[in-house]
Known about the structure:
8 helices, elongated, Dna Topoisomerase Vi A Subunit, Chain: A, domain 2, binds zinc ion
Amino acid sequence: MDAYSSQITKLIETLGSLPGIGTKSAQRLAFHLMNMPSEKVAAIADTIKETRNSIRFCKSCFTLTDRELCPICASEKRDHKTIMVVENTRDLAAYERTGKYEGVYHVLHGAISPMLGIGPADIRLTELMHRLQQDITELIIATNSSLEGETTAMYISKLVKPTGIKVTRIASGVPVGGDLECIDEVTLLRALEGRIDL
Ligand code: ZN
């Protein structure tokens, strides 16, 4: 039986479909929202809608942004000759939190996975190769240390080697199978500093 009105149940289910939000959290959020003044709820809804509508991919690194070029690619303070390859925008955010990386990024939006039928053409590899035609001194591969992340790293390394650009891989301070976004900044920095040539 539906303990609440079907509309509230729908809200709980909708919130519960978000990552990291279980049924109890979804219930708490739903009732919290229902007790808020309606203008405040409308403001939250508007922010979500406006952000979603204005978001796009940076035309250089393909991270999510609301501008043509993300703030990192647009910054003159960054070293545009060093590119760090990450699987997703969350991994980029993890490295940005260290505050120590001065290069730019390239977001693949996934990793090669023969098991899941994700091939090289399904991630932003063509765009990466295109960027490498510019004056680039180092490509740091910071994909996750999962099977997919390692497969992707090897694939990119083979692809880039003939260009003569230095290719490095972040050190294995990052636990096997670990998601970059869950790892603390010190470990991330150690992995970056201890990177090895591929
Ligand atoms: Zn960018």
